[in-house]
Amino acid sequence: MRGTLLVVACSLAALLVPAQGSLPGTLAHEKVQEEELAALQGTWVLQRYEASGKVVVDDNTPDDSRERLIVKGDKVTGKNGQTIVEGKVILNATKTPKHLDLQFTWGQTDVIIYVRAGNYLIQCGNRDGKTRPTEFVSGAKNGGEFLTVWKKQ
After folding, report:
1. Are 68 and 44 in contact (CB under 8 A)?
2. Mind listing the pLDDT tens digit for each residue in 44-100?
3. Which of 88, 96, 104, 147 is most buried, by the most CB atoms less than 10 A from its CB?
4. Element (H, E) at 121
5. Cβ neighbours of residue 87 closer than 8 Å, sequence gap 6 or more
6. Residue 129 region, left (φ>0) first, then alpha (ψ -120 to 50), else beta?
7. What was the pLDDT predicted at 24?
8. Residue 152 scores a pLDDT above 90
9. Spatial contact of 100 and 129, defined as CB atoms under 8 Å apart
10. Distance in angstroms (rounded) separating the CA atoms of residues 119 and 18
């Protein structure tokens, strides 16, 4: 009887303890990351761009001259008629606001906070690779160097 209880207890423990060190929180984090990366896939068209508090692109900018941001897998490409930037997407979708790093092939990293709202993506970031903004505003103390609004194509 004692041996049977030990076998049952060990069997239950094996079922309840995640395999290879995976914890339920880690699995949930990975699922959130995968879902968020999936939601970012596709082509995004620049709607508004502010740099240091000044509007650079807005509703008056012709559509054919607007930059496109293409996310495919964990790769990102920026195009304005031709490819102008390429890099890698690194997310932390569990933060509030969500964090996004764009590591470009030439070594620059943009550190960004972002929010998705329907077919829109709002980003605020710095190009120094280390100072992440805490507010969605450009050219202010807690904001970023740039603020962009993208619409999914």
Report:
1. yes
2. 999 999 999 999 998 888 888 899 999 999 999 999 878 889 999 999 999 999 999
3. 147
4. strand 120-126
5. 75, 76, 102, 103, 104, 105
6. left
7. 65
8. yes
9. no
10. 37
**Structure confidence at residue 81 (pLDDT):** 77
99 exposed, middle or buried (CB, 10 Å; 0-12, 13-18, 19+)? Answer: middle
Q: What is the DSSP letter of 108?
A: -
The tokens describing 151, both together, are 């619409």
Return the amino acid letter for 85.
V
Distances (CA, A) of 146 to 11, 20, 138: 55, 42, 5
For 50-97, the DSSP string reads EETTEEEE-TTS-GGGS-EEEEETTEEEEESSSEEEEEEEEEETTSSS
- State the Cα–Cα distance between residues 72 and 112, nearest whole angstrom: 18
Return all residues near 107 (Cβ < 8 A) that are at least 6 apart: none
Report the length, in residues, of the chain: 153
Q: What domains appear along the chain, each with residue ranges and CATH number? A: 40-152 (2.40.128)
